Amino acid sequence: MYVTAIVPAHNEAGNIKRAVRALKKQVDKVIVVCDRCDDDTYQRAQQAGARAFETVQNEGRKAGALNQALENYVDWQQPDQYLFICDADTVITEDWIEHAKRVIAQGDYDAVGSVFYGTANRSKLIEFCQQLEWYRYANQVRRSKKVFVLTGTASLIRAETLQKVRQQIGTFYREDSITEDFALTLDLKAAGAKMISPLSCYCTTEIMPIGGGSAKRLGL
C-alpha cells in the first residue's frame, strides 16, 4: 500500500514542521496545501521534506484547498494508493497507519477514520463542551461499530474510491458545504465505500478557539 498524506494548512508555521516530520515516519509522501498563508508555512513545510504548494484563487475554504491538491498534485497512476487527509494541528498515534493497514487487509475497507480527542485546557465552556462531544462520538463509534463522519482531522481513503466520487459529482469535496467531511462521507457511501473507525486509530487535535481566528479559518 502506498500512502500519500495531504495536509491543508492556513498559517500553520508553528505546527507544520512537526506535523510533516511525524507523518514522514508513517507515509510515503506528504503534500502540504498552503491556503492563503501570510506566514512562512510554505517554506517550513518544504524544509521538513514535504511537497508544498500554494492554492490559487481558492474561494472554497478547506474543501477548495483539498480539491486543488487532489486535482493537481496527486499521482493517480500510483497503484494501491490511499490518501491520508489530516489537519496540521493533528497528532496521530505512532502506529496509526500500521493499524489502518491491518484493518484494511482484514476487511477490504475503502476508508478508515479516526476517533479523536481534544488538547484544550478546558478553560472555556465552549471548549469543554466540544471536547465532551468528541468523547461522546468515540463512545458512539465503539457501541455501534459504524462510521458517521470521516473526519478531516485524520482519515485514510482509497484513491480509487475517491475517483469514483469525482466521477459521480464532478469533484472530490463539495465546496458549497461548510461541513465538507460529512458531505464526503455521504458521497463515499453513495459510491459504495466500505468504511470503519477503529478505536485503535485515534488522534488528538487542538480545539478551535471561538473568536476572530475561528471566523477567519471558516472563511467568514
Describe this structure in words.
The chain has 220 residues and is of the alpha/beta class. 40% of the residues lie in helices and 20% in strands. It contains 8 helices and 10 strands. The protein has helices at 16-24, 41-47, 61-72, 96-107, 125-144, 159-169, 180-190, 212-217; strands at residues 2-9, 29-34, 51-54, 81-86, 90-92, 111-113, 115-118, 154-158, 195-196, 202-205. The strands form 2 sheets. A 7-stranded mixed beta sheet has the order 3-2-1-4-8-6-9, sandwiched between helices. A 3-stranded mixed beta sheet has the order 5-10-7. Strand 1 (2-9), helix 1 (16-24) and strand 2 (29-34) form a beta-alpha-beta unit. Helix 6 (159-169) packs across helix 7 (180-190).
Q: What descriptive keywords fit this protein?
A:
three-stranded mixed beta sheet, 220 residues, globular, alpha/beta, 20% strand, seven-stranded mixed beta sheet, 8 helices
